[in-house]
Design brief:
Layout: H1 2-22, H2 36-39, H3 47-70, H4 84-107, H5 111-141, H6 150-181, H7 186-216
Helix pairs in contact: 1-3, 1-7, 3-6, 3-7, 4-5, 4-7, 5-6, 6-7
Length: 217
């Protein structure tokens, strides 16, 4: 378990560094006439980086709790991971790729490609969430319930938390899409689209780690 925790810590640190390097100039909520107090904040303390760092810490702690609980007793009975999760994972990968494309389109001032990237990214994300709901229903139909043993409880907890984070991301995504439909230019959309893309990449990494853990433990 120690080796696994070290691996997770390294992965999170590498991804955190990548996020920092790619969002160094992002200030989505910076407005003209910002208060003196805000201007005194360190340059690194932007809202996107702080929020993503918090999610990073929560994900690391939750995964660590999963691994530690697994080692605690004989009552841990791993469940068979539904095959549907492979399809769901593919949807999440495609959604992240689409939002990366939207981010690039915003930087190149390409409104058509930006709209297409946002729509495709959101569509695949919604498909992932629906697929997760179907996987939960399949488990329930097989008599695999949350309270049956700790492994079941952690499966439902971890996947539900991940879906909740995606739903929060879809709220920000819908606001960006609404602004674009109202006539905002790609340049004006760049900060919010960049934040969405980084958030989706982060959640894709978290899901990849969770999926590997569920398959191997």
């Amino acid at each position: 378990m120690t080796v696994t925790l070290v691996f997770l810590a390294v992965m999170m640190a590498l991804f955190g560094g990548w996020l920092f390097s790619h969002s160094i100039n992002v200030r989505p909520w910076e407005a003209q006439g910002a208060s003196t107090q805000r201007s005194q904040l360190p340059p690194a303390m932007t809202a996107p980086r702080v929020g993503l760092a918090v999610f990073l810490a929560v994900a690391t702690l939750t995964i660590s709790a999963y691994l530690m609980r697994q080692e605690m007793g004989h009552d841990w009975r791993p469940l068979a991971v539904p095959g549907l999760l492979w399809w769901n994972s593919a949807c999440l990968v495609l959604g992240s790729v689409a939002l990366q494309s939207a981010w690039q389109a915003a930087r190149r001032d390409n409104a058509v490609r930006l709209r297409r990237g946002l729509l495709v990214g959101g569509g695949f994300t919604i498909a992932f969430i629906l697929g997760q709901a179907l996987a939960w229903w399949q488990l329930q139909a097989r008599g695999i319930y949350l309270a049956a043993n700790p492994a079941n409880a952690f499966f439902f907890l971890l996947t539900a938390l991940h879906v909740l984070h995606l739903l929060g991301g879809l709220f920000a995504w819908s606001r960006s899409l609404f602004r674009l439909q109202r006539g905002a230019t790609p340049r004006e959309m760049l900060p919010s689209v960049e934040l969405c893309a980084l958030y989706w990449h982060f959640l894709l990494l978290v899901w990849g780690i969770l999926f590997v853990l569920l398959l191997t433990t």
